[in-house]
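Me: I hope this is not a bother. Any chance you could explain this protein sequence and its C-alpha cells? It all follows right here:
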Amino acid sequence: MLPNTDNTTVATVASTTSNKVGKAPVEVEEINTQQSSAEKAPSTKRAAETTEEPNPLLLDPYDFDRCAISILYSRIGDRQASVSVHNHKDDPIVKTLPLVEVPLPEQIACVIEQLLEIWPDGKVSATLVLLPQEEEAERRMVVSIRTGSDTPIVLTGAAAEFPLPPSITTLLDELKELLPARAMRKIEKDAKKNSKAAPRTSSGKAALPASGNVDGKTQMTLF
C-alpha cells in the first residue's frame, strides 16, 4: 500500500520537472582564439630570404673624384712638416718634407700662424678633405685646423679656393694611380671574409669503418 501523498506537492514537483525538461538550451557564444590571417605574425620565410651581397665598389667607390680623399698636414718643429694622404680606411702615404716645400693656401696658413702665436709650443695640424664630386658641381673641400685636442677651426669652400703646393699634388697623383690596385685588394679581402663566415656544408664523402667485420647495413659511414 502506497503512503499518502499531498496532491499539491505532487503537482508542484511535476510542474517544475516539466519546465526543466522542456526549457530550450542556452546558446553560448564561442570565442575564436585564433588570430585572423591579417593579424598573424609575419612569416619567417621572409626573414630567411638571403640578399645578394652588394658590390663594395658601388657603396664606397674607389674613384678618385667620387670618394673622399684626406690630407693630413702636421708641422714638425720650425723646419719640417709631415704630410699624409689616404682614401677610405686604407693605409696612408706619408712623407716628411722641408717646411718651405709645403706652402699651404693662404687661408689655412694664416690660421696656423695665429694658433702658433697663442700656443708657441703647441702641435698644430690641418686636415684637408676633398669631398666626393657630385655630378657636374665643383668639387668641395673641408679644412679642419686645430692645436692638440682643442676645438678645431673649420673652413669650407670649393677645392679651387685652396690651391695645394706641388709636393702635395704629387702625393695625390700617386694615390690616384694606386686606387685600382687597392680596389682589387678590398674585393679579395671581402670575399675571403664572406667565405669564412659562410656555414660549412657536408662534403657527402663516405669512408669505410675501421673494422672490416661489418654487415651490409653499417658498411658505409657518412661524415
Q: What stands out?
A: The domain at 59-178 is CATH 3.30.500 (Murine Class I Major Histocompatibility Complex, H2-DB; Chain A, domain 1). The chain has five helices and eight strands. The first helix runs from residue 7 to 22. Residues 5-23, 214-223 have pLDDT under 50 and may be disordered.
